Amino acid sequence: MATTADFRNGMCIDLDGQFYVIVEFLHVKPGKGAAFVRTKLKNVTTGRVLDKTFSSGVRVDEVRIERRSYQYLYQDDMGYHFMNTETFEQLPIPAEQIEGVQFLKEGDIVEVQVHAESGSVLTAELPVHVVLEVTYTEPGVRGDTATNALKPATLETGAEVRVPLFIDTGEKIKVDTRTGNYVERVRE
């Protein structure tokens, strides 16, 4: 058990049977009345952010979450299969628990959050940026526009993103897995 005095950014707590990570918190001591703590909590499984106020000294259940590196192997009807890079054990993870699943390709290393006591998988996160090859895009025509225009492009994973007109089929680009936006062209 922890109290509001133990709050810190990144701490995971159990609130009404759901796991939340403290994104930010603020201890408030008004001139009149009791002290309290304002928090922003992010649900580990859904990603929703919740504003919650706790009275000072309230006890909460702290949850231990471990982050482990897993390598993506393949996909079948059971889900996406990953292998622990240290123990070589394999486990399937449903697509709903993987953030940025449309940018996942074989061999990618993802960070999996695991509940320490039960060993259950909470979420899997891809790196912030991944490099993928453009498999198809319409050719861009110079002088077509006066502003930064974007066109659709299909990537090697099947995902579709919007890229600048100068990107051609066969080029590698860097994509932000959180937003799905084009970041830059990668030259080798």
Structural account:
With 188 residues, this protein is an all-beta fold. It has no helices and 17 strands. The strands form three sheets. The protein has a six-stranded antiparallel beta sheet with strand order 1-6-2-3-4-5, with no helix packed on it. It has a six-stranded mixed beta sheet with strand order 9-8-7-11-12-10, with no helix packed on it. The termini are far apart.
Helix content range: under 10%
Number of helices: 0
- Anisotropy-based shape: flat
CATH class of the largest domain: Mainly Beta
For the biggest β-sheet, the strand order reads 1-6-2-3-4-5
Question: What kind of sheet is the major sheet?
Answer: 6 strands, antiparallel
Strand content: over 45%
Q: Look at the helices and sheets and give the structural class.
A: mainly beta
Count the domains. Answer: 3
Count the E strands.
Answer: 17
CATH topology heading of the largest domain:
SH3 type barrels
Low-confidence stretches: none
N- and C-termini, Cα separation? 51 Å
Task: Quote the average pLDDT.
Answer: 88
CATH architecture of the largest domain: Roll
Alpha carbon gyration radius: 22 Å
SSE run: EEEEEEEEEEEEEEEEE
Please render the helix and strand layout as text:
Elements: E1 2-3, E2 12-15, E3 18-28, E4 36-43, E5 49-55, E6 59-62, E7 65-76, E8 79-84, E9 90-93, E10 98-99, E11 109-115, E12 121-125, E13 129-137, E14 150-155, E15 160-164, E16 172-176, E17 182-186
Parallel strand pairs: 10-12
Antiparallel strand pairs: 1-6, 2-3, 2-6, 3-4, 4-5, 7-8, 7-11, 8-9, 11-12, 13-14, 13-16, 14-15, 16-17
